[in-house]
Design goal:
7-stranded mixed sheet, about 350 residues, 6-stranded parallel sheet, about 25% strand, alpha/beta
């Protein structure tokens, strides 16, 4: 029997840039996963990088360029804050690494174009982390829609919100983001994916001031009406000001209405409910361990990323989907500031 080196049978040597909640979760998701060898983690904060490295037996770095130079990597996961993807993604692509970039791909079209140019010049692949494509509830909406069970999709109503905990405690960079970037990037992608349509215009309204009074100067509430290329619509709402007394930090509800049928779900209500001396909580069914292995949409997403690379297959969703969502959320912010309807897509860019 020939002694074939591991790399020749498709094992992916992986580095992670960004050692926070998501970077640590990806390291855990790939621990022991066939075809994945996570080698290193990088974070600007050395204690953060060291904690993840020590927890999963990785090399720790504070400079991603040094990590790329010293480690022989096949793929890199970019898990930095949403406004800080460009430099890490461009450098990793330039080093010949395939990419999994957290959603959104970028927060400006210029950054999205730079990442796309680097990926195409290097001949590598890029998956954008729209994890709700692996959410069983959203995936079922897509499957029913694609099969024609709904008829033509006429409208969608999607609410995805967080309690105060997320912008005030969980992430330290919320003032550089917004409910639109952090949450609506998920639902914009879901709405386009479920309907199979392209967004052509946005009308957005919102309010701010409550979070600013808590030293997080960003939007409190964002509403966005998306118009698709066939004239149908999707109504999206995201807030960062739900009370912390709610049993879950995430509120996610989705309704899709077609000519022949309508489907809906409420992910607040699908969990186990626990009533104890300190109140009611709903420990989610997704994102938990079963048999010592992490489960849930982001885990299944990163595992499929590795599995497709190992098999030499195309990864998806890719650059086109990522750039499309960036365009829409940029338009949402433009509409919020101007109070006007904003066109989206190639025609809007001239």
């Amino acid at each position: 029997m020939l002694d074939i080196p591991e790399q020749e049978v498709g094992v992916q040597r992986i580095g992670i840039i960004g050692g926070g909640i998501r970077g640590s979760m990806y390291a855990q998701s790939l621990r022991g996963f066939p075809g994945a060898e996570v080698r290193a983690v990088c974070d600007l904060a050395e204690p953060v990088a060291r904690k993840v490295a020590d927890g999963f037996g990785l090399s720790a770095y504070t400079d991603h360029r040094r990590m790329l130079a010293e480690q022989q990597l096949d793929a890199v996961i970019v898990a930095t804050p949403d406004f800080a993807h460009r430099e890490a993604a461009v450098d990793a692509a330039g080093a010949g690494c395939h990419l999994l970039v957290e959603k959104p791909l970028a927060t400006t079209r210029e950054d999205a174009d730079a990442i796309a140019a680097a990926v195409r010049a290097a001949g590598v692949q890029c998956m954008v982390g729209f994890e709700n494509r692996w959410n069983p509830a959203v995936a079922q909406l897509r499957e029913r829609s694609a099969a024609g069970a709904l008829g033509r999709v006429l409208t969608q109503n999607i609410l995805l919100s967080n309690t105060y905990y997320v912008p005030t405690t969980m992430i330290g960079w919320a003032a550089k983001s917004s409910p639109a970037w952090f949450l609506m990037s998920h639902t914009v992608d879901a709405a386009a994916w479920v309907s199979g349509r392209t967004v052509t215009a946005v009308d957005a309204h919102g309010s701010r001031g409550v979070l600013a009074a808590r030293s997080v100067d960003t939007w409190d509430v964002v509403h966005a009406l998306l118009t698709f290329d066939d004239g149908t619509t999707a109504n999206l709402t995201s807030t960062w000001v739900l009370p912390d007394s709610l049993p879950s930090v995430v509120d996610f509800r989705y309704q899709v209405v077609g000519e022949r049928a309508a489907l809906s779900f409420d992910l607040q209500e699908q969990s186990v409910q626990e009533a104890g001396p300190d109140g009611v909580s709903r420990p989610g069914l997704l994102g938990r361990e079963i048999g010592g292995r992490l489960q849930g949409p982001p885990t299944w997403m990163v595992q499929e990323f590795v599995a497709r690379l190992e098999r030499g297959e195309q990864v998806s969703p890719g650059l086109d989907e990522g750039a499309a969502v960036t365009d829409v959320v940029v338009a949402i912010h433009t509409s919020l500031e101007s109070g006007r309807r904003v066109p989206v897509g190639p025609a809007a860019r001239g």
